[in-house]
Design goal:
heterotrimer; A alpha/beta; B mainly alpha; C mainly alpha; B: mainly alpha; two-stranded antiparallel ribbon; globular; C: mainly alpha; 2 domains; flat; DUF112_TM (chain B); transmembrane helix (chain B)
């Protein structure tokens, strides 16, 4: 069992190397010859145990340990608070330039400093690799009179502004609603809840007219017809939901809106160590465990490494600032 | 009766040696993390989640559920023995349970808590077995206006837990509400009253405040008398016939109320235990004993928090929506096992669901068997003189609070609020309304704002909807009845509730 | 009668009133109302006002009420323990968790409670070891540890 799984992993890693650019090959080679962890590695999770990002970090940790990707042992450290600012503040204060520390980062850590400039997050770390993108969908209750996105859009446009109540489960959902209402040219009335689960509960109870959320929480409800998906906030349809059109298809010009999750090291870490971690994380991303985790979460695999990741984040930041009406 | 057939199938799965082992492991771990202040069932499940990857989902879920309800048993132990609530849902137990322990009746308190928890756990598992889908559907009728009305009812009850002075109690309750506004406002993302501290962005954690006020504050207040304090005589380790007679109804009421509150997504074991405590005090024929070691004040909340734990599984299993923080993590676990939590879980994964439900009957029995003898063992711990006991209590408070979020700042908070808690004890300011305010504050604010947003600004939403209106009416009567009764009696005795010599 | 202003009870009432005042003033830094519903500043303003009024009421009732001549326990021991806690928490970040926690118990046993040395050392050592066992080894909580911790 272990052997076959390991072979599978190696095969996947090899194919990933072939697929990635020559630079990737070079990096992987470099990682083997250059720096390696000198003591126990600390994986800092700037979120509370049990959330989506915490689970991702635990999967990364599990893959690193099970597939023996590093020569030292790995310690997980949850430092929750302040939308990631507490954990990353801890890294900036106590783990400065420490190559034996890695940190989980996600879209929230990018939004936090936009809303609270005092809370410094991404500027304190060096992004290494992105693993996945979470998608957003437009949902209504299964009993709703709206069968298609067109019907809903037509009705929203016909009624006065802010008459449609949409539940949200956090800042990223509110941003998705901004994307949606800007494309519509009409304001929607967001009723803000504290989590995706509460937002879904309000939709199921018929307390709101619709919601925008990650597919994860809604999959079981979709299957039973309790909720209906009307549109996707990305450029392609989901393989798991071939009948749900993209919002572009229904004539709404919305940008590709997704949330990312990845890994970073402290700022100004030695370049050799950065390359080492890029190599390790590429192997993690190629692992079947990671692929299964992402598929189970109905998210999109998006391995983006090193400089490409930094450039990707810069583009995301611009998008987020625009949506939150907080220009740099 | 179909449910009973399914349950029979569930038992045949749950009774396999492996699943039985996992059930035992779960309740044992739950008991352990319950005892430790700071670490709760959600952290324990999150820690174990990666280890269960690739193993049998049924066995893992049996274990996770065991951790969840097992923690409710464990939290009681520290609440009663040393006034440090091991879980947020056992705060109310540390009021009367600890007073009983001081009087040498720790064994009776722990015993009645274990028996009450067992009865409540079994009753609410029965509720889960028979009523889950229709109840879950009914719970969905609770939207923001209903939650708002429920919280208003809870806040009105502040006076009931305020001890000698209602005015001081209400002030302490408002102070708790006020502290709850520290940190990022979840509605708008604005950070409030953070004093420029990043670590305050998430506000003050409930368990930190309770460990500080009840645990450290109690130690600071009573260490002076430590050498003089007589060693508690541990008499009648098990509840007496009289205890049992007084606890019977509180256990039953606590079970029903706890189960119903637990079923509502958005409320949990903590609120259930508050409601049960207040209800018992209101219904009691001798309310003046509450706060001084009334056994009803242990039996009611302890039954209620266990019933709520099983109740919270109703929306999770029947609808696929989380009923509490811990069930949200269990939902995450279901997804990691490749299941799709949702209304079809009961039909499509019937074997798993029924095995978990069956395991809860077994787990509760295991916990009873474990806890009854333990009650005696733990009660004997109090034979150790207090001067030997309180330094380790402080050490456990510090380490436990640190481990809650791995935060040194929380340790500072525990010392600071510990000092405040000491002062509050010294000068008769009740601490319970303050923690009640901190618990209800966020829900009060978000449900108010959500309701008014939904209704486009009109407050009629609170009286247009039947459930909200009924709860609001109950809140009004709660205030009005004692006042009117007082006026009618029009004797020198003041009208306000909770007035005791 | 004379020192009514100086009692701890009054101190608490004044403290809460000041806290309420701070919240009342601070609430105006945030928007009070937006669209259909109260915004971030509204409830802090309400709570602050309520706390202020209630605390003033408590203070007044203390002022005009009958003085409670209650014998209070001496403060020294509690203050010593509190000071020890402050020192311990301050040192946690520098010298790890286990040593200060052990030191805290030893200080209280030996200095505050004047208990025999050997027994104190054994009890404090056992408690520290079991904390390390449960929190560090079983639950792998990343307590700040330093080289001489285990």
């Amino acid at each position: 069992m272990t052997v076959s799984r390991r072979d599978l992993m190696l095969g996947a890693a090899a194919s990933a190397c072939l697929l990635s650019s020559g630079g990737g090959m070079l990096r992987a080679a470099n990682a083997q010859s250059g720096w390696a962890p000198t003591r126990d590695v600390e994986l800092v999770i700037p979120f509370a145990a049990g959330g989506g990002s915490d689970l991702l970090a635990r999967v990364v940790g599990k893959i690193i340990v099970e597939e023996k990707l590093i020569p030292q042992s790995l310690v997980l450290n949850n430092r929750p608070g302040g939308g990631g600012a507490v954990g990353i503040g801890y890294v900036a204060a106590s783990r400065r330039k420490d190559p034996n520390t890695i940190i989980l980062i996600n879209g929230t850590t990018q939004i936090t400093p936009i809303l609270n400039p005092a809370a410094r997050t991404l500027s304190e770390v060096q992004p290494i690799m992105n693993f996945m993108l979470d998608d957003f969908l437009l949902f209504v209750n299964g009993d709703s009179k709206y069968k298609t996105a067109q019907e809903l859009i037509a009705d929203i446009k016909a009624k006065p502004t802010k008459t449609f109540n949409f539940s949200t489960g956090g800042t990223t959902d509110i941003m998705a609603i901004t994307v949606f209402s800007r494309a519509l040219g009409k304001d929607i009335n967001p009723v803000n809840f504290n989590s995706g689960g509460e937002s879904l509960t309000a939709l199921l109870g018929g307390h709101v007219d619709g919601t925008i959320g990650n597919p994860l929480e809604f999959m079981g409800q979709l299957a039973s017809g309790k909720v209906r998906a009307l549109g996707v906030f990305r450029d392609t349809r989901f393989a798991a939901m071939p009948d749900v059109p993209t919002l572009k298809e229904v004539g709404l010009d919305v940008p590709n809106f997704q949330m990312w999750r990845g890994i970073a090291v402290p700022k100004d870490v030695d370049p050799a160590a950065q390359l080492y971690w890029q190599g390790v994380m590429e192997k993690v991303a190629a692992s079947p465990t990671m692929k299964k985790y992402i598929a189970d979460n109905v998210a999109t695999e998006a391995p983006i490494v090193g400089a490409d990741f930094v450039a990707f984040l810069a583009a995301q930041e611009k998008l987020y600032r625009g949506l939150l009406a907080k220009p740099a | 009766m179909e449910a009973l057939m399914d349950l029979g199938g569930g038992f045949s799965t749950a009774l396999t040696p492996n699943n039985l082992m996992m059930c035992f492991l779960g309740v044992f771990l739950g008991q352990l993390v319950g005892v430790l202040p700071g670490i709760g069932p959600s952290a324990a499940i999150a820690l174990l989640l990666p280890l269960t990857f690739g193993s049998d989902p049924t066995a893992s879920l049996i274990m996770f559920a065991g951790i969840y309800y097992g923690a409710q048993y464990g939290g009681t132990i520290t609440s009663v023995l040393i006034s440090v609530p091991g879980e947020s849902s056992t705060v109310m137990t540390s009021i009367d349970g600890y007073q009983m322990a001081i009087k040498g009746r720790a064994g009776a308190a722990l015993g009645i808590a274990a028996i009450g928890s067992f009865i409540a756990g079994t009753i609410s598992t029965l509720g889960l077995t028979l009523l889950a889908p229709p109840l879950a559907q009914a719970a969905l009728a609770f939207g923001p206006p209903e939650y708002f009305a429920l919280v208003v009812l809870g806040l009105v009850a502040l006076a009931a837990v305020s001890g000698r002075s209602v005015l001081k109690g209400v002030a302490a309750g408002v102070a708790g509400l006020l502290l709850a506004t520290i940190g990022i406002d979840p509605q708008s993302g604005v950070s409030r009253f953070d004093f420029g501290m990043v670590w305050l962005l998430d506000g003050i954690e409930f368990i930190v405040l309770t460990v500080a006020l009840f645990g450290v504050g109690e130690v600071l207040a009573s260490c002076t008398a430590a050498s003089a304090r007589p060693v508690a005589e541990v008499k009648n380790v098990l509840p007496t016939r009289e205890d049992w007679r007084r606890s019977r109804m509180p256990i039953l009421r606590g079970s029903v109320v706890g189960f119903l509150v637990g079923v509502l997504p958005g409320t949990g074991a903590t609120i259930a235990s508050f409601i049960a405590y207040i209800m018992e005090k209101k219904l009691s024929r001798h309310p003046e004993e509450f706060g001084k070691g009334a056994i009803e004040g242990v039996a009611g909340p302890e039954s209620s928090n266990n019933a709520a734990a099983a109740g919270a599984l109703v929306p999770m299993l029947a609808l696929g929506v989380p009923g509490s923080g811990t069930t949200a993590i269990i939902l995450g676990a279901l997804i990691m096992f490749g299941l799709r939590p949702g209304p079809e879980l009961f039909t499509q994964n019937a074997t798993l669901v029924w095995a978990v439900i069956a395991s809860m009957y077994i787990g509760n029995l295991l916990l009873l068997i474990m806890n009854l003898p333990l009650a005696g063992v733990f009660a004997r711990l109090l034979k150790v003189p207090y001067k030997w006991l309180y330094p380790p209590i402080l050490a456990i408070c510090l380490v436990g609070v640190f481990s809650q979020a791995n935060s040194l700042e929380d340790c500072w908070l525990v010392v600071g609020f510990g000092a405040i808690g000491w002062g509050m004890k010294r000068f008769d300011w009740p601490a319970a309304p303050m923690v009640l305010g901190l618990v209800l504050g966020p829900m009060f604010e978000s449900s108010l704002r959500q309701s008014l947003t939904m209704s486009h600004g009109t407050a009629f939403i609170f009286i247009n909807r039947p459930i909200a209106a009924a709860l609001m009416l109950a809140a009004v009567l709660f205030i009005a009845i004692p006042v009117i009764a007082g006026l009618l009696a029009s004797r020198p005795r003041p009208a306000s509730a909770g007035e005791a010599p | 009668m004379k020192h009514r202003l100086l009692t701890g009870d009054m101190g608490f009432a004044v403290g809460w009133a000041l806290l309420g005042l701070y919240w009342m003033v601070g609430a105006f830094d945030y928007p009070l109302w937006s669209g259909f519903a109260p915004d971030s500043g509204f409830l802090p303003l309400v709570y602050g006002t309520l706390l202020f009024l209630l605390s003033v009421a408590v203070a007044l009732s203390l002022w005009f009420g009958e003085a409670e001549e209650e014998e209070r326990e001496p403060l020294t021991k509690s203050l010593l323990v509190l000071a020890a806690l402050v020192v311990v928490v301050a040192s946690l970040g520098f010298i790890g968790f286990l040593l200060p926690v052990f030191g805290l118990m030893m200080f209280i046993y030996l200095y505050v409670e004047k208990l025999p040395l050997l027994r104190s050392a054994v009890v404090a050592g056992l408690v520290t070891a079991s904390l390390a066992l449960v929190f560090v080894h079983w639950l792998s909580i990343p307590l700040p540890l330093v080289t001489w911790d285990f």
